[in-house]
Amino acid sequence: MSVRAKKDAAGNVTGYQARYLDRRTGKQPSKTFRTKQQALAWEAEQRGRVHRAFAGPLVDIRELAYEVVDGTCSVDAFLEMWAKEAATAGTRGQREHLRKNMGDLQFRSMLAVTTAEIVVWRDGLRGERGVGRKSGLAESTIRTMTRQLRAAFEVAIARGYADTNPVAHLTSKRIRAKAVMPEDVLSVAEIKALVSAWDDPISTMIQVGATTGLRIGEIAGLRAKNVDLRTGKIHVVEQARGGREWVWGPLKSASAQRIIAMPPSTIAMITAYRERVERSKNDPLFQTETGAMWNASNAGRVIRLAGATWTWHDLRHSYASHLFNAGTDVATVSKLLGHSGTSITLETYVHILPGSEESAVEKMAKLYG
What angle is formed at CA 188 by the lines to CA 218 and CA 208, rounded to 5 degrees? Predict the structure, then answer.
């Protein structure tokens, strides 16, 4: 893309030539205008035409209210368009969240953003307040937003709104699993007290989390048909992404798809719960009072507002800890938790594996007395 001044032999400007790359044909059409503003406007229009030529439920960017940056598409305008094209509410929400946290980059042209600017933007996300937050974002969230922005630029390149992807070769910090400490684990008595203290559906959801190790998104994403009370098994195949609108999404990884056997107490609780509610086989098993879908966000908010000192993930950690204490091996626990590998399980639960420290002390005693 370019708009350049054309000059005569004496160096006087005689007009402005606009040129853009049509990625469908590989050609670079151009046209000369009397003023620079006319050239910029023509180029922006051609980019819009290229965009509309692509198949799919696309949004004409010229119908959106946005600021033009030097006659080209701004980052904010493109992300707005990209969000409107999302196939699901969950994806649309993620793209809108990215757009709202672009900071000063929102005013930049898609053609002008550099890798150095992306690095500065990510550093800002780590240490500054942003939309809806009081402190920096978690590294895992920044990784997700970086992946989204990389994908956005790939789409922009395909449609002629950008020439290069400044995020293409940018790597992110690897997030090591946070090790669970013994004090993070709830006892069986504490879990039973929580089950008794809460009303349904939260009560039954707590029981499911503590006795199957499911993530809260997986619990919320259970359809009625996924819980087989006859065989006593839960089929984990998807997780909740919606709220008032029922939307499901893929699991965290392929290994998260699994079948978990329930203990008799959990089967009994779900059976009693099902007798009190009407559910079609494809309905979310657990719903709010208004019929909305539970998800990680609203389920976490409900217990926080009630003053809870525990989290849904504490139930998962407690499940793993109790299995280890009962003598279950690491490979089996890893599979039941849906981890992608035993290394994650070991990193997370290294401090609660029974007998490891005692065994080490005994070995040293034999060596040194």
Answer: 20
Strand-pair category, 248-249 with 2-7 = unpaired
Identify whether residues 278 and 247 lie together within a single domain: yes
Instruction: Verify that 190 and 258 share a domain, yes or no.
Output: yes
Contact (Cβ atoms closer than 8 angstroms) between residue 245 and residue 92: no
Residue type, 167: V
Residues 208 and 319 grouped into a single domain? yes
> How distant is the alpha carbon of residue 21 from its chain centre?
33
User: For residue range 132-156, what is the model confidence (pLDDT) as tens digits?
Assistant: 444 577 777 888 899 999 999 998 8
**Count of domains forming the chain:** 3
Euclidean distance between CA atoms 337 and 255, whole angstroms = 9
Q: For Cα atoms 12, 15, 20, give the angle at the middle one, nearest 5 degrees.
A: 130
What CATH number does the domain containing 278 carry? 1.10.443.10
Burial of 162 (0-12, 13-18, 19+ CB in 10 A): buried
Q: What is the pLDDT of residues 216-226, one digit of tens each?
A: 999 999 999 99
Q: Does 359 fall in a domain?
A: no
